[in-house]
Design brief:
heterodimer, A: alpha+beta, Alpha-Beta Plaits, 4-stranded antiparallel beta sheet, elongated, B: alpha+beta, Multidrug efflux transporter AcrB transmembrane fold, 16 helices
Chain lengths: 337, 626
């Protein structure tokens, strides 16, 4: 089977102007949003406390909120998480929120209403066991702790810094490798495409205020890897064609290369998209943000390898001379005494 | 023609795939409910213990599946969790105080496989459930404590050499100032201290008769290193008391410690036990002065005012008789006569002799046990946010909680064993005994990060992760089969081997598998076929250009190779950066991604080529099923 029977002759580079305008406009919107709305950083970066609880029966958010307020827990954000039996409570770093003890206080307050106390289990179950006045033998707690995350403010700040640094290091590493394997214009082109992809993804996260957590940061770094993969394949073909198609100009060579690699670009995007969609749909809530970032990344990465990376290389004025292997004899002559 | 491999290439492929399959195999056996028994400082895990455990279980007719000794623990397996939990209660009662008994899941890998290092993947806390703490050691406090110790040491040294001093005190932000009588005295003292404490920086200070002692950078870094090490040891001991099967205690950076407790459910208690900096001191009660005259005023020289647990004031003589460091063992029990909870203490030889002497001289007088705990909270500014100093360091408020637990009358001469009474309840007695036994922390620690995953969520994560892999994998297989037909089958076989190899490498190196790690596996599945897409598209292109099938295969593999290498190496760079930056789950993602890149290059290039050569190599071809 083949979805393209004939070789395509799309004039991709003919669209470089509209593409560059489109990219610039979209990125500008994204950057403006990042500047003015900011990213909706999760507690990994801001610090704070997050508690996910699961009740045996349906629970009213209002009740939970009230019992927290009655016990002087301020600024708690309480919301359903998935079903009406699961709730998620978030607390910012605040006066009493700066310690790991807060999450215990929360669960204690909520268990007091039942009332029940956690104990060591005596039956086989994947749940926390509690005793209460009416049940002296341990049974599954009414309130089950599913997840607790506490991040101190200093840790959050470090992560933000490290995350930014990681991205810079990745870009520098790639710049060097591509510069060494190809040529500096290609290195610059691929890095521009990567920055484009990263900014675009961050922009989407900012515009729709999707929570930016640690796994999302990992996904963004994975996007760098994926998008680069696409770009390199195109560059590789361009390099090959510069040596083969001696009569053509740079424009034609690059367009031909983009067309020749089009099938592969689309196919790989499809298979990757298939697995990323699988993750998004069945992977669960914990990695939803991660999968969502990958989804955007795969799309924008495919686009940028065609419409950003190559046009940038062309704009930087690549020519055949730049792509010819260095004259070996000359280099050797220097070495011979 | 060109399309066959020399025999040794097949051999290389087989030599990688067969061990790969072998090391991936342990993951299909699942787990047995089990109990892990570990020794404490004064008990050994040996065949004798194994016999004792087996007999105990037989006596209660709890069937055990098997029992095995390894380096430092005894692992007992059971058919089901009911047996496991019954056995736990029984063995806890039987081995209490001697051994640590913890329930756990033991991999059901056959022992002959385990002996070849074939183990299932090591699951991270987000998959198995448990607690992850990142703790920060308060280094300022560690240094302050060390300076206090030096002050005492200096005094002792000077006294020993009969050098009269006016004062030795620790001045914050300056150092330790030793004031002597005159310049001559000072020079002698300088010589003495320099001889005895060669690592310290000692200089004349201010007037003619004073010395300034500073710690110097090497000493400070030594103190910091020691503080982290001692805290790690203390934490390990405390964790042992909680009873966790496979705890992890690791240093991270200069001043942080990672603690992971798989399977712990009552995190509040774990936190309370790990975080406390409690010490115990034994002092004499000042019987010469009346407490009432001191309350609200100044305590007489040599004494200090304390509070009892119920708030009553009590006057104690300064001078610690012995402290928590001298305690060898502490056990909670119920006093048979009074029925109240007590903690029985055992002292080391030095403190035991001292105890004997002092209690012998002071029968009828009272002795007080002081519990002191250092509490350290981040300081907040007026607006309620975290306060920092000029250097950007966090400011903290420290408070010393000092309570007299009990002040009993000495009725007899005591030796190295005695009891503490007057505790609130059984739970308190147990926790206190635990803390006393576990040793003091060298400096206060604070939890700066906590991640707890409940057991039910852990299981849900595994299920969802597994489902993602299965569905993603099947869809990609289907796609490749439809799109590339025979060559699709080659690619699919390679993809399956890629998954097996990836699991094998993860199992062999016992890299931690996390939920993002599973996502990395799924992503690898999607991206691994890329290499085959590149090769197959290239082959089709060659065919379209009118080349013969064999020539096309040859050129396709050859030309695609550099592209695949370049594309994968750049992805690998991103993955390695991710690994170095990452913590916990993120690291797991970076690990599976990197390993996936390497295994996929092998399978999609060498394995598919091997299959293609095997299938087409000796045939005359008119066309290819691609």
């Amino acid at each position: 089977m083949d979805f393209l029977k004939k070789d395509t002759t799309f004039n991709f580079l003919g669209y470089q102007k509209p593409a560059l305008i489109l990219s610039t406009v979209l990125l500008l919107i994204g950057i403006l949003s990042i500047i003015f709305r900011g990213l909706n950083f999760g507690i990994d970066f801001t610090g704070g406390t997050l508690v996910e609880l699961s009740y045996k029966e349906t629970v009213q958010i209002q009740d939970v909120r009230e019992s927290l307020e009655d016990n002087n827990v301020q600024d708690a954000v309480v919301q359903y998480f998935g079903t009406s039996k699961d709730i998620m409570i978030r607390l910012p770093v605040s006066v009493e929120g700066s310690s790991a003890a807060l999450s215990d206080k929360l669960t204690e307050i909520l268990r007091e209403k039942i009332p029940e106390t956690v104990t060591e289990g005596t039956t086989a179950t994947k749940a926390q066991q509690c005793v209460s006045a009416t049940h002296t033998t341990p049974q599954d707690c009414h309130v089950q702790i599913k997840r607790v995350e506490f991040v101190g403010p200093q840790v959050g700040d470090e992560l933000t810094e490290q995350g930014g640094l990681a991205m810079v290091y990745a870009l520098i590493g790639i710049l060097l490798y591509v510069g060494w394997r190809f040529e500096w214009r290609f290195a610059l082109g691929s890095v521009v495409a990567l920055v484009h992809d990263v900014l675009f993804t961050l922009g989407i996260f900012s515009i729709f205020q999707v929570e930016f957590s640690l796994p999302v940061l990992a996904a963004v770094l994975a996007i760098i890897g994926y998008s680069l993969n696409d770009t390199i394949v195109v560059f590789d073909r361009i390099r090959e064609n510069f040596r083969k198609m001696r009569k053509s100009d740079s424009f034609t060579i690059m367009n031909t290369s983009l067309n020749q690699t089009l099938r592969r670009t689309v196919l790989t995007s499809v298979t990757t998209m298939v697995v990323v969609m699988t993750l998004l749909i069945v992977g669960g809530d914990l990695i939803r943000g991660f999968s969502f970032a990958l989804c955007i990344g795969v799309l924008v990465g495919t686009y940028s390898s065609i419409f950003v990376a190559s046009p940038v290389v062309l704009l930087l004025g690549i020519s055949r001379e730049d792509m010819l292997p260095p004259a070996k004899e000359g280099a050797n002559a220097d070495l011979t005494p | 023609m060109q399309n066959h491999y020399p025999w040794w290439k097949y051999l290389v492929i087989i030599a990688i795939l067969i061990p790969g399959a072998f090391y991936a195999l342990p993951n299909i056996f699942g787990d047995d409910p089990g109990i892990q028994i570990r020794g404490t400082r004064n008990s050994n895990v040996d065949t004798e213990l194994m016999q004792r455990v087996t007999e105990t279980l037989q006596a209660a007719s709890i069937p055990q599946k098997s029992a095995a000794l390894d380096l430092n623990s005894l692992k007992v397996r059971f058919e089901n969790t009911d047996d496991q939990l019954q056995a736990r209660d029984l063995l806890r009662a039987e081995l209490q105080g001697e051994y640590i008994t913890a329930v756990t899941l033991l991999p059901a890998t056959p022992s002959w496989m385990a002996s070849l290092n074939a183990r299932p993947m090591y699951l991270g806390l987000d998959l198995r459930g448990g607690v992850h703490f990142l703790m920060e050691v308060d280094m300022e406090q560690a240094i302050a404590l060390a300076e206090e110790r030096y002050v005492a040491d200096f005094k002792a040294s000077l006294r020993e050499e009969k050098l009269r001093y006016r004062s030795v005190r620790n001045q914050a932000d300056i150092g330790i100032i030793v004031q002597l009588r005159d310049a001559k005295n000072r020079d002698q003292a300088e010589d003495l201290l320099e001889r005895q404490f060669p690592d310290l920086v000692i200089n004349p200070y201010d007037d003619d008769a004073s010395l300034l002692v500073e710690l110097g950078n090497t000493t400070i870094s030594e103190i910091q290193r020691f503080a982290v090490e001692q805290n790690m040891t203390a934490l390990r001991n405390r964790i042992d008391e909680i009873g966790v099967a496979e705890p992890v205690v690791q240093q991270q950076g200069n001043s942080r410690i990672v603690v992971q407790l798989p399977g712990v459910q009552d995190t509040a208690r774990a936190k309370a036990i790990l975080g406390r900096t409690a010490t115990l001191q034994v002092l004499m009660v000042d019987e010469e002065h009346s407490v009432d005259s001191v309350v609200g005023g100044v305590a007489p020289a040599g004494s200090k005012l304390y509070k009892m647990r119920d708030g009553r004031p009590i006057l104690l003589k300064k001078g610690v008789i012995y402290s928590g460091d001298n305690i060898v063992d502490a056990a909670a029990s119920i006093d048979t006569q009074t029925g109240s909870p007590v903690v029985s203490l055992t002292l080391d030889a030095v403190a035991g002799r001292k105890n004997q002497r002092i209690t012998g001289q002071n029968i009828g007088k009272r002795m007080a046990v002081v519990y002191s705990e250092q509490v350290s909270n981040p300081r907040l500014d007026a607006s309620g946010s975290q306060a920092f100093d000029a250097d950007g360091k966090m400011l903290r408020d420290k408070r010393n909680i000092e309570e007299v637990i009990t002040a009993p009358v000495i009725r007899d001469q005591l030796g190295n064993r005695f009891q503490i009474e007057g505790l609130d309840g059984v739970d308190e007695a147990r926790d206190l005994a635990l803390l006393l036994r576990a040793g003091a922390l060298a400096a206060p620690i604070e939890i700066v990060e906590e991640r707890t995953v409940g057991p039910s969520l852990g299981q849900a994560n595994i299920d969802q992760g597994f489902l993602s892999v299965v569905i993603g994998f099947s869809l990609v297989l289907l796609f490749m089969l439809i799109y590339y037909r025979t060559f699709g089958i080659f690619a699919n076989v390679a993809l399956a081997f890629n998954l097996i190899l990836l699991v094998a490498v993860l199992s062999l190196f016992q890299a931690t598998l996390t939920l993002p790690g599973i996502a990395g596996i799924v992503l690898t599945v999607g991206m691994a076929v890329d290499a085959n897409v590149l090769i197959f598209e290239r082959i089709r292109e060659e065919l379209r250009n009118g080349n013969s099938p064999h020539a096309s295969i040859y050129a396709g593999y050859g030309r695609a190779l550099t592209t695949i290498l370049d594309a994968n190496i750049t992805t690998l760079i991103a993955a390695i950066v991710l690994f170095n930056f990452g913590t916990g789950p993120i690291k797991g993602f970076a690990v599976t991604l990197s390993i996936g890149i390497l295994t996929s290059m092998f399978t999609s290039i060498m394995v598919t080529r091997g299959l293609v050569n095997l299938y087409y190599g000796r045939k005359k071809l008119k066309e290819l099923s691609i």
